[in-house]
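Much of what follows relies on a compact textual record of a protein's fold. Think of the row as the fold of the chain written in a discrete alphabet. An example makes this concrete, so a full record is given next.


***
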Amino acid sequence: MLYQTVAEHWPAFLERAEEHGGLPRFVVKEFEEYLRCGRLEHGCLHLVCRECGYSELVAFSCKQRGFCPSCLGRRMADTAVHLEQSVLPRVPIRHWICSLPWGLRALLGYDRKLCAEVVSAFMAEVDRSLRWRAKRQLGLASVADAHTGGVAAVQRTDSALRLNVHLRRPGADEERARRSGAIHEPGDGPAQRARHAGRALSFHLRRPHPCAALPLRRSSRRAHARQSARRAGEDLARQEAAGRVHAGRSRSCPGRPEDQRRDDRRCASNSTQR
């Protein structure tokens, strides 16, 4: 049903989009490769059994990362099996999610290098926080004796298929101590861990990067991206602060603004004097 719908309406949709500026090239490529996926006329492989002589034609797949159910489902299943059997240890797994300001999400959707830096910062700060907590609670001589593990995944869309870049980190819920090889369980709850990691990540992203000191012609794009992300974070903080102030005023007078209360008091005072 999905393939028939896209094949029927894609030409008209593309023509209409061109009248309003067009679509990005990677979007057009994604749709066109999807329409070629699994079609024998666009390439196939002829397989023959040497013993019984049975032959079969296998069409090439698009191998895209957009919305092809066949390719995405196959890649998802292969990755899940690999992580379960070869990467993740047999310990409880905690799922960390890094949600970014809207201004930074749009930049990460088009800047791979900046996205890689944010992913590295997110992973490093979470691991650093967990290692230091393990050192304090387990009495280790050094943070090098505590080990963590996790896998980073970049999700680029939300449930409404909007560009909404956010990071996911499934990883071990306990820290391994090298001195005994046992798995220890810290006492901090998930909410406190998330607060510590969020503050550390925010501090890491706001620190000046060495690239900012390079000449403008070499780092202007990345510096502009960081400046835009910093401004987006500051705007978000101001909006949240304004929301808290407004909420406080609303609690002081539910359903009625302060100026209306002052007007009511003035009217009551004038009526009393008369």
